[in-house]
Amino acid sequence: AQSVTQLDSQVPVFEEAPVELRCNYSSSVSVYLFWYVQYPNQGLQLLLKYLSGSTLVKGINGFEAEFNKSQTSFHLRKPSVHISDTAEYFCAVRGYQKVTFGTGTKLQVIP
Amino acid sequence: DTAVSQTPKYLVTQMGNDKSIKCEQNLGHDTMYWYKQDSKKFLKIMFSYNNKELIINETVPNRFSPKSPDKAHLNLHINSLELGDSAVYFCASSQFTGVGQPQHFGDGTRLSIL
């Protein structure tokens, strides 16, 4: 069984400030971890993924995430957010056949 | 070129009706999915097909029937629509081989039941 917990349902942050969106997972097998972004009225788009190797993963739009096996976390970070980053962010874990998504974190960038 | 396309984008209908949503992907993927996203943005897998074969069926009412005529298409037919079916339905695709493959999503079909 696998599960994903996104601890914050909403994160307001001022423009140009740094942000961290938290994600914790549990799985009984090797995991593959993803962050997706959903802009209003659109589908999900892949931001970045962790499969193996370096625990710091860089994605699109200046986002990065760090895989921490001991803390079973995969937090998403950006050093300086832009208004256009306002969206819903989903953490996901993929096992053998199935992908499980977290409940999403709404990032609201304040001008 | 849209990678995963769903039609229609919006669907407004009355309780008790039957409706279908179509999905096509041109990415050459062998696995396709249907997800339901509720008003709180919670995303739940409904079905998954690999090369036209059903591999995931997540306790979905049998009013929902997926059909995959070929590996590039996965349609969703819903009978006797109920108020609780109102949601956004997303189609997605990926390569099955290699579990690290990400999913590619369509833009969703917004279903509203009156």
| End-to-end gap of chain A | 41 Å
CATH class of chain B: Mainly Beta
Average pLDDT number of chain A: 93
Helix/strand order of chain A, N-terminal first: EEEEEEEEEEEE
How many domains make up the 3D coordinates of chain A? Answer: 1
Shape of chain B: globular
Strand content of chain B: over 45%
pLDDT averaged over residues of chain B: 91
CATH class of chain A: Mainly Beta
Written as H for each helix and E for each strand, in order along the chain, the element string of chain B is: EEEEEEEEEEE
Annotated CATH topology of chain A: Immunoglobulin-like
Helix content of chain A: under 10%
CATH superfamily of chain A: Immunoglobulins
What is the fold named in CATH at topology level of chain B?
Answer: Immunoglobulin-like
* Count of structural domains of chain B: 1
DSSP summary: helix tally of chain A: 0
What is the fourth-level CATH superfamily of chain B? Immunoglobulins
What does this structure look like?
Chain A is globular, with a radius of gyration of 13 Å. The mean pLDDT of chain A is 93. In chain A, strands 2, 5, 6, 10, 11 and 12 form a six-stranded mixed sheet that branches. A four-stranded antiparallel sheet of chain A has the order 3-9-8-7, with no helix packed on it. In chain A, a hairpin with a 4-residue loop joins strand 8 and strand 9. Chain A is 0% helix and 55% strand. Chain A has one domain: Immunoglobulin-like. By secondary structure, chain A is an all-beta fold. Chain B has 114 residues and is mostly beta strands. Chain B has one domain: Sandwich (Immunoglobulin-like), CATH 2.60.40.10. Chain B is built from no helices and eleven strands. In chain B, strands 2, 4, 5, 6, 9, 10 and 11 form a seven-stranded mixed sheet that branches. The mean pLDDT of chain B is 91.
